[in-house]
Structures are given as structure tokens and as C-alpha cells.
Specification:
The chain has about 290 residues and is of the alpha/beta class. Helices cover about 55% and strands about 10% of the residues. It has helices at about 5-30, 45, 55-90, 125-130, 130-145, 150-160, 170-190, 195-205, 225-235, 245-265, and strands spanning about 35-40, 90-95, 100, 110, 120, 265-270, 275-280. The protein has a four-stranded mixed beta sheet with strand order 2-3-5-4. Strands 1-7-6 form a three-stranded mixed beta sheet, with no helix packed on it. Strand 6 (about 265-270) and strand 7 (about 275-280) form a beta hairpin. Helix 1 runs parallel beside helix 6 (about 150-160). The protein is elongated and about 80 Å long. The protein starts with a helix and ends in an 11-residue tail after the last strand.
């Protein structure tokens, strides 16, 4: 599969940010799994200088919450993918190269698949669109197919699910989706020589509720991208990326917090004897008090 610039960016961010997070988990959690751990009494004070004495417990609980939330959101993504794939496979009417017709009373068109992605169109959307309008839809989705947007969006969706502590990622992905939809619209317009057919398609689909809820699928009538697309097609208003100030602040504080935890020096040593083992966990190298359980 061809590596696109966007895919490399999302993959790089995914690896970099989660590397920091897992470094923190490795540092603070794995040692706690040892059956006997000795904490130097001043450790919590050193790690959480100026904060309440029980802040260390808060850190552990917070990290645990982040891990559980990430696992839950990742499972939701996997379940949604599995449900959509099953729904598609149970309602296939016709397969023609990269185009698949689905028996559905709801109008939709989208790209789906990882190894061999295809364009899926419903029987309903074929019925309500003219030949030129349907052609504009297929050209739009063909752009997504050729640019591997399905796989890139899937990586981005997984990235978002594993970083609930970085709401800015959601804004980045939303901006990316809008840009890709605008590029797909532009490609279809260049092929047809006019934007009228695509405008008519969006007007017709606005009468129906959004049919594709899974964020990892580039769909012709994605509710999150409709407004800027209509503004561009009808009023020629250029899209400007938007980031919520709240999400910027929360994400900045989260990264600062994780990096601080990762950089705090903690010294450990393990002592073995006939009866039991002990792990000494200290910030101060000169401290050596420990006990065994």
C-alpha cells in the first residue's frame, strides 16, 4: 500500500505520543506488579512537590482510568467495524470491480476496506439520483479509493481512541476529514466540468439522516463535513482549520503532565534472600530503607 503524507503524519504522532504514555506506564506500573515493593517515604513528596500527600494515588488512578478508557474506545471502534462489515456482506446485490451495490432503503455511498477497499453504494441512492449525479458521487468516492483515505482514516480513528487525554487529536482528525472531502469534491468537479451535479446530490441527501456513523469511513454525506463543503461549492468560501481552545489547553497540560512523569528520576534496586524479595523504590540515591512482606 502506498504511504501517503497524511498516513505518515498520523502514524508518527500515534507512535510518538503513545511511546511517552507507555514509558510512563512502564515506569510506574510494572514495578508495582512485583509482589513486594518498598516505597521511600519521601518519594511521593519529591514526585509531587507542593501537592497533597495522596496525589501519588491520584496519579495511579488517573493513569488507570486513561488505560481503561482507551481500551473501551478501541473496542468500540473494532465492534463498529465488525458490525458495518457484517451489515455490508449480508446485503450485497452486485459486485462490479471496485463498486458494490448494497440492498438498502437508505441512500448512502462510502469507501470501506483495508487491504482491498471498495466503493459501496445503496440501491436507494441509485434510485433518487440522476445518471450525472450518480457519476459525481462515484468520482468523489473514487478519489478516496485511489488516495487510500479509508486506511488513513482508520489509523486516525484508532489514534483518537487511544488518546482520550488529547482532545486536540479529535480536532485534527475532523479538519483532515473536511480537507479530504473537499479534495474529493474538487476531483469530481474537474472530471465533470461543473459543480451543479454534486450540489444537487448534497441537497437531496440533506433530506435524510446520516446513515454512516463510523468515523473511519469516508462517506459522501458525512454530517461533520457537509457545512464547509456546501460553503465551498455554493459560496466559494474557503475552509479554515478550527481548533477548540479548550482542547488545546487540555492536550497541552496532558502532554506536559506525561512528560514530567516520564522525566522524574526514580531509582530502584532489587534484593533477593532465602525468604522473600524486596524492591527498593527511591528518588534519592542515598536513601536505602526497605522492608519485605
Amino acid at each position: 500500500m502506498k504511504l501517503t503524507k497524511q498516513l505518515l503524519i498520523f502514524t508518527g504522532l500515534f507512535i510518538g505520543i503513545n511511546a511517552i504514555f507507555f514509558a510512563v506506564l512502564h515506569k510506574y506500573f510494572l514495578i508495582l506488579l512485583h509482589h513486594t515493593v518498598t516505597f521511600c517515604q519521601d518519594m511521593a513528596k519529591t514526585v509531587t512537590s507542593g501537592l497533597p500527600n495522596n496525589f501519588g494515588i491520584f496519579i495511579i488512578l488517573l493513569l488507570s482510568f486513561i488505560v481503561l478508557t482507551s481500551i473501551f474506545k478501541l473496542l468500540v471502534v473494532m465492534v463498529n467495524m465488525s458490525f458495518l462489515r457484517k451489515k455490508i456482506n449480508n446485503n450485497i446485490l452486485n459486485v462490479n470491480n471496485s463498486y458494490v451495490t448494497i440492498d438498502s432503503p437508505k441512500p448512502f455511498a462510502f469507501c470501506f476496506g483495508i487491504i482491498k477497499p471498495k466503493i459501496y453504494v445503496s440501491k436507494k441512492i441509485i434510485q433518487i439520483l440522476s445518471n450525472r449525479e450518480l457519476e459525481s458521487v462515484l468520482l468523489h468516492e473514487k478519489y478516496h479509493l485511489q488516495k487510500h483515505d479509508t486506511f488513513t482514516l482508520l489509523i486516525a480513528t484508532v489514534f483518537e481512541s487511544l488518546t482520550p487525554y488529547l482532545p486536540l487529536v479529535k480536532d485534527i482528525i475532523k479538519n483532515y476529514k473536511i480537507e479530504r472531502e473537499l479534495m474529493a469534491d474538487k476531483s469530481a468537479i474537474l472530471e465533470l466540468g461543473s459543480s451543479n451535479d454534486l450540489i444537487n446530490v448534497l441537497k437531496k441527501l440533506l433530506k435524510y439522516e446520516s446513515q454512516i456513523d463510523f468515523a473511519g469511513v469516508p462517506a459522501i454525506a458525512d454530517i461533520d463535513t457537509l457545512e464547509p463543503r456546501i460553503n465551498k461549492l455554493v459560496n466559494n468560501i474557503h475552509f479554515i482549520k478550527k481548533f477548540k481552545f479548550k482542547n488545546i489547553i487540555i492536550s497541552f497540560l496532558s502532554i506536559t503532565f506525561l512528560v514530567s512523569l516520564a522525566l522524574v528520576p526514580i531509582n530502584t534496586s532489587e534484593i533477593h534472600n532465602k525468604d522473600s524479595d524486596s524492591v527498593i523504590l527511591c528518588v534519592d540515591k542515598n536513601m536505602s530503607t526497605y522492608y519485605t512482606l
